[in-house]
Amino acid sequence: MGPRARPALLLLMFLRTAVPQGRQMRSHSLHYLFMGASERDLGPSLFEALGYVDDQLFVYYDHESRRAEPRAPWVWNRTSSQLWLQLSQSLKGWDHMFIVDFWTIMDNHNHSKESHTLQVILGCEMQEDNSTRGVWKYGYDGQDHLEFCPETLNWRAAEPRAQATKLEWEVHKIRSKQNRAYLERDCLEHLQQLLELGRGVLDQQVPPLVKVTHHVTSAVTTLRCQALNFYPQNITMKWLRDRQPLDAKEIEPKDILPNGDGTYQGWIALAVPPGEEQRYTCQVEHPGLDQPLIATWEPLPSDTLVIGVISGIAVCVIIFFIGALFRILRKRQASSF
């Protein structure tokens, strides 16, 4: 199970935030992704943990080594031994909790002799207006399974099969209170400490490069708006027709992917009537931009013009060769006399 690429893609759905017009507000988050797998007749045998501040991987842990490994330069150079010891102890505790929870879920599904997977994401987000939000979710065999509700200290079952585990966990009120204390207090304190360590790195803003491209198939004309090489990943992209926002149903969902250098790329596509491309513009908002950026498709020279240029060049070449041939024949005739 790769510890880098897949978790980064999974976390994108949790890390996107809504932002207002103009220069966008910057939120911050701390999330951990736990992944485990069981082997047939052996039970849970694999546990990996990844920690992200905002969308930057900063720590990796696995059950075999039982060591927390820093994965970002600002962590290597600035983290105090006390903070790192505290983080390592937390990951070891979550390692144990994860295995116990994995067994509980498999037993409640009567799956103890089969191979299965479990994923957990937990963490907190902090907005610039000081509002906060916590998340603690379980996924089983690739499907949403359980979600903790700190307001009520209950668990929300995402599928009927999760009901037995929900009822079992809700009996343990002490654990539920500990979960809430972590999401509403401890997680936010750790986030503040890590943001201070990553100052100058985590708060950088790289504006996107934006372009609109044109694609024609046998039946559909499509405009694609691309935003390239931006950071952080929260970005708003929308299509306008005659300067008015389009209904979301008319637009393909926005897709954002990480680049290998820590920046991101995103795009949205729109099918348009042929010949009406100039009515559509793409509007992009990002924390690195002082104001929304507007981009339109700039058509290339028409096919008629291209054909005309090619034809003109061909005629010139033919005239050149005819003239050269005529001079050669004149010289031969002159030399024969």
UniProtKB/TrEMBL annotation:
Origin: domain of life? Eukaryota
Q: Which SMART domains does the UniProt record give? A: IGc1
TM helices/strands, residue ranges: 305-329
Where does the signal sequence lie? 1-20
Instruction: List the GO cellular component terms.
Output: external side of plasma membrane; extracellular space
Task: Give the membrane topology, semicolon-separated if more than one.
Answer: Single-pass type I membrane protein
Keyword hit for DNA-binding? no
| Keywords per UniProt | Cell membrane, Disulfide bond, Glycoprotein, Ion transport, Iron, Iron transport, Membrane, Signal, Transmembrane, Transmembrane helix, Transport
What biological-process GO terms show up in the record?
iron ion transport; regulation of iron ion transport; regulation of T cell mediated immunity; response to iron ion starvation
Q: Which GO terms describe its molecular function?
A: beta-2-microglobulin binding; transferrin receptor binding
Spell out the Gene3D superfamilies in the cross-references: Immunoglobulins, MHC class I-like antigen recognition-like
Q: Where in the cell is it found?
A: Cell membrane
Principal place of residence:
membrane
Read off the InterPro entries from this record.
Answer: Ig-like_dom, Ig-like_dom_sf, Ig-like_fold, Ig/MHC_CS, Ig_C1-set, MHC_class-I_related, MHC_I-like_Ag-recog, MHC_I-like_Ag-recog_sf
| Annotated Ig-like domain residues | 207-286
Please give the subunit comment from the record: Binds TFR through the extracellular domain in a pH-dependent manner.
Q: Which family does it belong to?
A: Belongs to the MHC class I family.
Q: What's its job?
A: Binds to transferrin receptor (TFR) and reduces its affinity for iron-loaded transferrin.
* Protein known as: Homeostatic iron regulator
Taxonomy of origin reads: Eukaryota, Metazoa, Chordata, Craniata, Vertebrata
